[in-house]
Amino acid sequence: MYKQLVILLAAASLTACSEKEEVAQVQKAPVEKAETTLQTYKSQAKSLLADIRTQNTAQELEKSSANLVKTSRKLLSEFTVKYPQCQTYLGALDAAADLIPTLPLEEIETGYHADGKLPKFDDPVCYHAKDLLVHPATVQAIAKQGFKSETAYQDAELEIVEVIAHFDQVERALN
After folding, report:
1. Which top-rank group of organisms is this from (predicted)?
2. Domain range spanning residue 94?
3. Mind spelling out the 3-state secondary structure of 81-148?
4. pLDDT digits (tens, 9 = 90+) for 27-78
5. How many domains does the chain have?
6. Which three-class secondary structure state does DSSP give residue 175?
């Protein structure tokens, strides 16, 4: 009986040690951080670019580009906290965000790519931030038209390639 008691105590001791190690490992496991708006934007832009390159359906590309526009609006809101001098410029753009994809491409080009419908700004960093919304909204407009022209997919691809370049500037400005 003495041997059985010693074995039972040894087993209980080992089990307790094992459980403590598991708890310690769980507590030491790195806590995943929530994805930032910058990270979300970057991954959505890359995903949209891949979908354009594989010539996904117009409906899917319209949905993906609309999601990128939505993320850009949140990012621009965060951006103006650090760069309040961009508030008037980016605020006017945000107010037009739902309208832009419904416009003819020529009007988007003159009104928003070339700033014809936006107030003047003093800091070049504002321009890069603006393009995070305008380029995906342009893709959204192209997708609404149904990729009817021969170059529509190429045009959409160039829009997102360009927005990724602007994103790099914005990312540096925010970090």
Report:
1. Bacteria
2. 37-174
3. HHCHHHHHHHHHHHHCCCCHHHCCHHHHHHHHHCCCCCCCCCCHHHHHHHHHHHHHHHHHHHHHHCCC
4. 444 445 578 999 999 999 999 999 999 999 999 999 999 999 999 999 999 9
5. 2
6. coil
